[in-house]
Structures are given as structure tokens and as C-alpha cells.
């Protein structure tokens, strides 16, 4: 194995709930009606995809571009007040980065990935947002792009994920997948059965060979 690629939301920062709360509040203020499946449907979507979803499926009375820009602005405010880094995540990435090239492959917009890296100061040379790809997770595009920018084959990479769509994306990319299941939005059991499951991000360095 030659490299390790991390998801961001739910793996390094405990942000899935923040995203959900911000989107629900934004939708309610702009004419939308939250549906029972909206939260899980949007997990892994790229920014253009979930912006369009808020309009088409939730009923937000804006353009997709306005919806995504508004939500991202609210997320920036939330992160400025408190960046919810998962305990042990920074230490785990630093230890892994001392042994492997590392990257982030995230559905988060690039501006929020930058906030995370600026605050933590982590040595992550490659950070890819699915905004740059034709499709978000569960498409493998963002993982394949991250591996390409690291200069390694996708099949020689570990991927660290927490959600159903993220796990599917990494598996579709041909990576060796390690799951740190999100306790708020547990991934599907049939997908977890295909990967190695860790109890916490702190266990990651010891799981890599």
C-alpha cells in the first residue's frame, strides 16, 4: 500500500450534524419542506448536486447556486465559531502522514476543506473536493482524482470513510477501505460487511501495514 486518503466530514470533523442542521434551517427559511430521506440522500453529494437537490426535492425557492452558496456561508460561520475536530483525528493524520503520502477526498466544498487545514495545520499535500468532479459520492471520481494527484494507483491506496455513500465510492475506486462508522448516521450493514471496521479514528495508525 502506497498512500492513505481520508474523507473529511464524519472522519476528521464531527460535522455531519452541523451540515444537517444548517441545511434544514436554511431550507425552512427559504420555502423548503424537509423530507424523511433528505439527510441521507445528500450525504456524499457534491456541492452542485446537493444545491440542486435542495431546490428540486426540498423545494427551496432559490436557484441551486444560490442555495449552495447560502448554506456554505452558514457553514463558514459555524466553523468560525467552532470547528468540531474529532478527538484523536489530528494525531492520527500526523502519524499516518509520517509513514505514507496522504490526501483528503471530500464532498465538502474546497473553502471548508481549507478552513480545516488552516486551523489544524495538518501536512496534507493533496485535498480534493468533489466540486471538481463530474459526480459526487457514491461515484468514485473524487477518490480517483485524489490518487491521481498523489501519483499512485487507486488500488494501492487505503481510504478512510464513515458513511454509506463514501464507503461505496472508495470501494468503487478499488481502494482498501477502512470504516470509522458515523454514530449519528450509521452506514448500511451490507456495505460495512465489505470493509474493515475500526472503533475510532485513533485506531487507524495501528491498522495500517
Automatic annotation (TrEMBL):
Which keywords fit this entry according to its UniProt record? Hydrolase
Name the PANTHER family on file. 2-DEOXYGLUCOSE-6-PHOSPHATE PHOSPHATASE 2, PSEUDOURIDINE-5'-PHOSPHATASE
Keyword check for Hydrolase, yes or no. Answer: yes
Which one of the record's GO molecular function terms can you name? hydrolase activity
The family database entries (InterPro entries) matched by this protein are listed as: HAD-like_sf (IPR036412), HAD-SF_hydro_IA (IPR006439), HAD_sf (IPR023214), PGP-like_dom2 (IPR023198)
Question: Organism, per UniProt?
Answer: Lentzea atacamensis
Q: Where are the transmembrane segments?
A: none
- Provide the protein name: HAD superfamily hydrolase (TIGR01509 family)
Amino acid at each position: 500500500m502506497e498512500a492513505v486518503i481520508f474523507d473529511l466530514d464524519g472522519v476528521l470533523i464531527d460535522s455531519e450534524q452541523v451540515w444537517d442542521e444548517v441545511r434544514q434551517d436554511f431550507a425552512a427559511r427559504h420555502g423548503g419542506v424537509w423530507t424523511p430521506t433528505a439527510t441521507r440522500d445528500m450525504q456524499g453529494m457534491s456541492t452542485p448536486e446537493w444545491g440542486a437537490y435542495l431546490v428540486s426535492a426540498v423545494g427551496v425557492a432559490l436557484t441551486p447556486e444560490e442555495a449552495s452558496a447560502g448554506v456554505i456561508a452558514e457553514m463558514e460561520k459555524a466553523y468560525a465559531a467552532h470547528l468540531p475536530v474529532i478527538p484523536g483525528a489530528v494525531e492520527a493524520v500526523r502519524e499516518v502522514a509520517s509513514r505514507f503520502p496522504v490526501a483528503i477526498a471530500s464532498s465538502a466544498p474546497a473553502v471548508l476543506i481549507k478552513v480545516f487545514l488552516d486551523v489544524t495545520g495538518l501536512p496534507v499535500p493533496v485535498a480534493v473536493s468533489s466540486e471538481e468532479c463530474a459526480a459526487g459520492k457514491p461515484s468514485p471520481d473524487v477518490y480517483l482524482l485524489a490518487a491521481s494527484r498523489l501519483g499512485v494507483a487507486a488500488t494501492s491506496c487505503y481510504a478512510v470513510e464513515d458513511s454509506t455513500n463514501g464507503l461505496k465510492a472508495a470501494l468503487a475506486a478499488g481502494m482498501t477501505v477502512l470504516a470509522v462508522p458515523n454514530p449519528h448516521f450509521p452506514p448500511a450493514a451490507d456495505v460495512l460487511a465489505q470493509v474493515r471496521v475500526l472503533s475510532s479514528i485513533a485506531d487507524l495508525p495501528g491498522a495500517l501495514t
